[in-house]
């Protein structure tokens, strides 16, 4: 596998340094979370030129219904999709591809390559939003932590919940799915952080239990393992400590814990977050369940 360019990793590091201009030492213990095998029949989608492409269907809600296959997909960037990959995407019958990457990321790696008839939807979310600067206790914790890289990743997850611009993009994606106008795919650069939070929120709205929500989230470590190994090997060759960069390339249950903790801090309950933070009313929530559960 051809290693990814280190430029995207450098962009993430630059974002962290911009928030806290201090040296980031190697963490003492930053082992990636072990891959978790879901109880659902995870359906990986082969798309040439893309990774971490999955159907979110198959999970079981608390009421015994199952999330339908063929309606919602998650993935990493589609900017390097080949002609073969475009044909594979065509077979999914997508109505839209929602791109959570920032404008900087799109400029560096390119726009999505999509089949004709699939609407490209720019839904820029900055992983290191300036909103984080207002969260001084958490920012200081990240600066002073031994595992600074991991703490800055966790801080970015707080931003996905706390930043009104990020919430606006998640809301628009949820409403698009609820409209029932056709299958929707959403993605960020690696399909693990912004995409992971979006999926966790959607599955929780659908009533999928926490264990399955986290299993889906942590599966990105398995999906990206080969790519990450190649990337870390390339970075080591140019003198960058892999232990410093690894937290940016993987997911941890603690990252998603942080997002849910921020929901509790800001809104008290998940239900209040959905209605007040996202502006998703009862009718739209019912439409999501009607569309996606069987």
UniProtKB/TrEMBL annotation:
Residues in the signal sequence: 1-30
Domain of life assignment: Bacteria
Name the UniProt record assigns to this protein: Tyrosine-protein phosphatase
A Pfam cross-reference name: Y_phosphatase3
Keywords, comma-separated and alphabetical: Signal
InterPro entries: Prot-tyrosine_phosphatase-like, Tyr/Ser_Pase_IphP-type, Tyr_Pase_dom
Family (UniProt): Belongs to the protein-tyrosine phosphatase family.
UniProt domain Tyrosine specific protein phosphatases: residue ranges: 168-233
